[in-house]
Amino acid sequence: MSLVDSLKTWDEAVANIGSESCVEDVKCSLKLFSEISKSSNASAKILFNMSSLSHAIHDYVSAEKFILESIKKDEHFSLAYFYLGTILSYVSRNSEVLDNFQRALTMLRGRSLINYQQLGLNVKIFEFEILYNQAVIFARLGNLNEAQKLINDVKSSPNVKENAFIYSQVSSVKTTSAISNLELYEKPRCLVFKPPKSKTANLQKKDYLGKSKVLCANSNITEQTSKSAPNSPQMPRRPQPLRSIKNY
Q1: Residues with Cβ < 8 Å from 237, sequence gap 6 or more?
Q2: What's 181's DSSP letter?
Q3: Burial of residue 199 (number of CB atoms within 10 Å: 0-12, 13-18, 19+)
């Protein structure tokens, strides 16, 4: 597959994912991303997309495989470590979950957040979101003292109100034992990097998926659950250059 065909396929795969996407839509986009990965040296972005979509259809084995491959492409990919932590939480590998949340925190490099919008993904990852999830896992492991310290850090974060789910959760904590009832925070399902606009602006779109598209009325998997909350725009007080994700 040529570079032009790869970009067209990427564009089509992203266009197929929307607010009313069903399982078949996601599988179709996964197939398109798979075509890109098989025909070329897939970028960290493509592999992240494959992991995100696998996660959305509850294929955690594939989700872990693809996110690990994405991290191999870019070892400074904070959001990928965060995703790996949430994926591993589904199979109760809590020690590994903590390790990956810590790596996600380290890759922030002292910043309060990273905004991936400039790289084609409309999402941010905040320091307090990682700290909150660390607290939840420490509580699951029975270390409530460490969990309490982290919850205190989350409560004191100036950005905590940016995430309605986490703000509600930590506001409900009145005693240390109550931390055991907190739920892990996840980003919305089906988050995917879009191809660079500079490279797709003049591409003629190709109908890879057919002329008609059937939506699954009762199978909406991109709708946010109670565990996920949108991040409204807010930049760090001292913005720092964001390391580019390798390739594309």
Answers
A1: 112
A2: G
A3: middle
Tokens of 126: 């905040």
What pLDDT, in 10s, does the model give residues 142-189? 999 999 999 999 999 999 999 999 999 999 999 999 999 999 999 988
* Alpha carbon distance, N-terminus to C-terminus of the chain: 15
Say how many CA atoms lie within 13 Å of 44 toward its Cβ: 21
Query: How far is it, in rounded angstroms, from Cα 178 to Cα 142?
Result: 12
- Please state the pTM of the whole predicted model: 0.81
The stretches in the chain having pLDDT less than 70 are: 19-21, 203-248
Give the separation between CA 224 and CA 100, rounded to whole angstroms.
Answer: 23
- What is the rounded distance in angstroms from the CA atom of residue 188 to the CA atom of residue 230? 8
Residues whose CB falls within 8 Å of the CB of residue 216, separated by 6 or more in sequence, listed in order = 20, 22, 23, 24, 25
Q: Residue 79: which residues within 8 A CB-CB, separation 6 or more?
A: 48, 104, 114, 116, 121, 123, 125
Instruction: Let me know if 1 is exposed, middle or buried by CB neighbors in 10 A (0-12, 13-18, 19+).
Output: middle
Phi, psi of 168 (to 5 degrees): -65, -40
- Please say whether the beta carbons of 50 and 192 come within 8 A: no
Query: What burial letters (b/e) apply to 13-42, b meaning 16+ CB within 10 Å?
Result: bbebbeeebbeebbebbbebbbbbbeeeeb
